[in-house]
Amino acid sequence: MLRHCTTNGYCDRPIGTGAINVAPTIGVFDSGFGGLTVLKALLEVIPQSNYLYFGDTARLPYGSKSVQTVARYACEAARFLEQQGAEMLVIACNTATALALPQIKEAASVRVLGVVEPGAQSAHAASKSGRVVVIGTDATVSSHAYQKALASLKIEAREKACPLLVPLVEEGWVDHPVTEQVASIYLQEAFSDGFSSADVLLLGCTHYPLIKPVLRRVVPTTVTLVDSAESTALAARELVRSTSESNSQERSELRFFVTDSAEKFKRLGQQFLCRPISNITHIDLKE
Amino acid sequence: MLRHCTTNGYCDRPIGTGAINVAPTIGVFDSGFGGLTVLKALLEVIPQSNYLYFGDTARLPYGSKSVQTVARYACEAARFLEQQGAEMLVIACNTATALALPQIKEAASVRVLGVVEPGAQSAHAASKSGRVVVIGTDATVSSHAYQKALASLKIEAREKACPLLVPLVEEGWVDHPVTEQVASIYLQEAFSDGFSSADVLLLGCTHYPLIKPVLRRVVPTTVTLVDSAESTALAARELVRSTSESNSQERSELRFFVTDSAEKFKRLGQQFLCRPISNITHIDLKE
User: Fold this and answer.
1) What is the CATH number of the domain that holds A208?
2) Between A170, A181, A264, which is nearest B178 by CB?
3) How many CA atoms lie within 13 A of B172 on its CB side?
4) Do residue B93 and residue B131 come from a single domain?
5) Chain A residue nearest residue B73, CA to CA
6) pLDDT of B247 over the 90 cut
7) Is A264 on the interface with B (CB under 8 A)?
8) Residue B11 domain-assigned (yes or no)
9) Global pTM?
């Protein structure tokens, strides 16, 4: 199982159990920092791969933007990661996956994995009542991508947009009374009126794993929290196993590309990745 | 004096007192919606001008981004507004003004007015103690633009970043207990330790006028709230009076340009402008 760091310090990374030998270069894309929680999970289950992480920090957040804009940004990022040598892409951004996975797949010539499908699979596995509450950004919720993915697994979903949770995490209020109050307002509503039997809370945004203890406190004790970082990493490992064209690598190399300040990414990013970040390149994407 | 609408409904716009006859086309630039509070003030004091409003909604918010990125975005916007026929530019975004006013002036060939200088002038006029608290985004506060502008007027300033206030306004929680609690946390700190004698709160972000009642409740009763929308509009009127190359116009025309969804801009924007919004064009800025 994955280990999560409980504070802002760095956690040690278990290597070994479940690790595989094949090692394609994996491109990981997010609008900014949240995707680092997925990269962290990937590093644990596929430790020998090389990783290229792209954070579109000059244009974040995506969660309040339109389908057209998010699709354009995400396709640019996918093409960029391929040009840099990515042999497989993980869209570690719920909004980009929910709004634009088909367009990204069309823009890319390598395999593309999003976070919605693995997250929905995990929620399905964890639910006994067949009812799941999904929280995410405005854009993710409006797309109903999770509702559709869960419906195909015979799970009834209630989706709830929680736009204040990302800014609260980015303010560093990860265990603050205000964050608990805001989460409580959002979730009390979500778990009422016919959804009191829901037994899974699916975290449909990569920022939310950082406030798991707060979320744990405001939902009924019978509810299981599922985040897509771990399930996406496991799905990626399956894909890697089935990929024949992959090089072999002794140890992983990490490279980061960001569209805004590299310094800020370094500072904030290590809270998400739980390890120091270096090798960051600022890029412009031809704007 | 300007009228503010007290609810999300539309307020009537007083025309007459203080209105002038010259009417250049004024380009108003903001990262998104907040600049509409400045446009609202401009419409009241220069009602006969034509206005071109540019909201960079696909790349908002600017408040968490670097100097280089904000300067690049703002200069692109300034050039675009000039191409559309703006004869004068009002940078209705505190972050863009604070970080990039010199670069914008260099990129533009028409007169450029920012919000920092007029805001500082108003704070100076309102303060008896010579101490002012300024609130704004992370980027605005880090630039110390307000501190410098106030120091030149012999005013001592304490700047406090309040990154959660913009998301709270955009969530529509303009009179919500959580917003009051967050504002209280930020401002109790700002008005303590040597700044208990501060008698002005300068709102260094165009979103903040929407939560004036909340801010009023969490600061000492002796404190005057100053926002730069009104003072910027009055400064613009002075500039217009001194501009010789201006056309004459019977009634104002409003055109809006946005980089993300026009529909969303229409919906959210009218809360800031306090009137219905039409004539919106989506543009791409060559990305």
Assistant:
1) 3.40.50.1860
2) A181
3) 9
4) no
5) A287
6) no
7) yes
8) no
9) 0.89
